[in-house]
Write a structure and sequence with these properties.
There is one protein chain. The protein is of the alpha+beta class. Helices cover 21% and strands 35% of the residues. The chain has a single domain (12-144), classed as Peptide deformylase (Peptide Deformylase, Alpha-Beta Complex). Bound molecules: cobalt (II) ion (CO). Cobalt (II) ion (CO) is lined by residues 89-91, 131, 135.
């Protein structure tokens, strides 16, 4: 495994829209494993591929309910309730602020083998999922701060 460089908010790449993943080969697994090492070293909760300069729709999240989750080509199927909570981002060091997010989110996504999965996430796990999916569309949490 290797640690990857996390790009910051001043890098224009972070605003790009990521592409659908259609290659579930060992190259993808290596990327996911390297992202995991990078996330652990950075002491973060989630990391989207775009944050390591790879423009594909995937992210990893350390959830409270399920442990490490790899979400590839995620689609939000259901959102319920709202919560306002403080967020940060490894691409925006030194910044935190309150954002409104769903309290429950059900995602359809693929795992690293391309198998379709459906899971429901609650609380901070749901917040994390929405934050990472935003990254896939070039959106940062600082765009959504509540004044
Ligand atoms: Co982030």
């Amino acid at each position: 495994m290797a640690r990857l460089t996390i790009i910051k908010q001043d890098n224009p790449l972070i605003r790009k829209t990521s592409k659908i993943v259609d290659d579930f080969s060992p190259r993808l697994h290596e990327l996911l494993d390297n992202m995991y090492e990078t996330l652990l070293h950075a002491n973060g909760m989630g990391l989207a591929a775009i944050q390591v300069g790879v423009l594909y729709r995937l992210a990893i999240i350390l959830t409270e309910e399920y442990g490490l989750i790899e979400i590839i080509n995620p689609i939000i199927k259901t959102v319920k309730n709202q919560r306002i909570d403080s967020e940060g981002c490894l691409s925006c060091p030194g910044i935190s602020g309150r954002v409104r997010r769903p309290h429950l989110v059900t995602l359809e996504y693929q795992d690293r083998h391309g198998q379709k999965q459906i899971k429901t996430f609650h609380g901070m796990d749901a917040v994390c999922c929405c934050h990472e999916i935003d990254h896939m569309d070039g959106i940062l949490f600082i765009d959504k701060l509540i004044k």
